[in-house]
Amino acid sequence: MYKGIYEYTNGFEDEEPNEIKTMDVDDHIYNNKRPIMPCKKNGAGDQHSVSCQWWKRYSGAAAGCLGLLCVLLLAGIIGLFLYQRDQLQTSYNTLTKERDQLQTSYNTLTKERDQLQTSYNTLTKERDQLQTSNNTLIKERDQLQTSNKTPTKERDQLQTSYNTLIKERDQLQTSYNTLTKERDQLQTSYNTLIKERDQLQTSNNNLTAERDHLHTSSNNLTDERDQLQTTNNTLIKERDQLQTSYNTLTKERDQLKTSYNTLIKERCPQDWIRSCCSCYYISTNEKTWDLSRKDCQARGANLVIINSREEQALIKAFNKRAWFGLTDKEVEGTWRWVDGTPLTTSYWNKGEPNDFEGEDCALVDNTLKDPVVAWNDVPCNHKNGWICERQLC
Ligand code: MAN
Ligand code: CA
């Protein structure tokens, strides 16, 4: 039960004014110990009783006002309650978001805490080792201090040792950082090597399959090669036999060719005239001396060279006005045969050669009755028949 302080001034009729009372509120409400408003004393007794009953006339209105106030108060409380509930809902949502963010941050921090815990454990070990070293040094220092031997020097030495340990610790920390970096690099290299190993494994599998395929192909090719080798050996033998036969045939062919050439040489073409060791061709038309010579050359012969009286008689007997192989066109008056040999024995007509108006080529004339003598020099650009000679021996 609420214990309040109820303060009034001169509220009870039978008590003295200006006295402060404390009482239970419930007692005040339910025991009907209401305070009685003070009455103003006007001096007379009846007047006093009338003026002390004034509140009874307004009790109904007061109760209505009180009820209205209670309703307004209740409405205010409900409105306040709803307003606070909305604010609480908004705050709840905001707090939920913040809680999720904090949860994420908490997870991240937990990971970092674990990593730091690992580093902390490592550093703790190092610290413990250093602590152990430090304790050892302190013991040594204490022992040295106890022995009272040059304490200042010992302190300096301890300080130096301490500084050295600090440096070593810093170096260890630096080494730790370096090793951490190297470890990360090695991890990266390890991951790269794993990828490369997988790629190489794939390549190896492919190459193995190709190798097997090639091995099979190689075996097939080996069999084919052996068969081809056997065939090749057989063909080589056949080729050698054929080569031998070819050589034999070539020799026989060459012999036959030689014999043929010999026979050809000994034989005159059709429409040619053979006499002793030469074949003679007598033209059927007329040309200049130069064109006549070229015609003989095209026939494998040359304009006839007369080497003997018998040959001259033969040419004369042909009874053909014809060019033969004698000219002085190179040096006037110096007659040479078409093979370059000089003229030694000649059969000129009487008065010839006379080089009449420039006559440099010789022909055999068929107008005189002498059986041998028949030569005359005439202009080379005249057109006459001609006689070719192909020697057989
Ligand atoms: C005569 C003689 C020959 C000469 C001829 C030319 O017969 O003078 O020497 O070659 O004419 O037509
Ligand atoms: Ca002449």
Provide a concise account of the structure shown:
This protein is of the alpha+beta class. Among the domains are: 37-111 and 134-191, no CATH class; 273-391, Mannose-Binding Protein A, subunit A (Mannose-Binding Protein A, Chain A).
Walk me through the structure.
Among the domains are: 37-111 and 134-191, no CATH class; 273-391, Mannose-Binding Protein A, subunit A (Mannose-Binding Protein A, Chain A, Roll), CATH 3.10.100. It has helices at residues 25-30, 45-51, 59-146, 151-266, 289-298, 309-317; strands at residues 273-275, 278-282, 302-303, 322-327, 336-337, 361-364, 375-378, 385-391. Strands 1, 2, 3, 4, 5, 6, 7 and 8 form an 8-stranded mixed beta sheet that branches. The model is unreliable at 1-52 (pLDDT under 50). It has 393 residues and is of the alpha+beta class. It is 60% helix and 8% strand. The radius of gyration is 78 Å and the shape is elongated.
The shape, in one word, is: elongated
Mean pLDDT: 82
Beta-strand residue fraction? 5-15%
Q: Biggest sheet: strands, sense, closure?
A: 8 strands, mixed
Topology:
Elements: H1 25-30, H2 45-51, H3 59-146, H4 151-266, E1 273-275, E2 278-282, H5 289-298, E3 302-303, H6 309-317, E4 322-327, E5 336-337, E6 361-364, E7 375-378, E8 385-391
Parallel strand pairs: 4-8
Antiparallel strand pairs: 1-2, 2-8, 3-8, 4-5, 4-6, 6-7
Residues 352-354, 356, 359, 376-378 line the site of calcium ion.
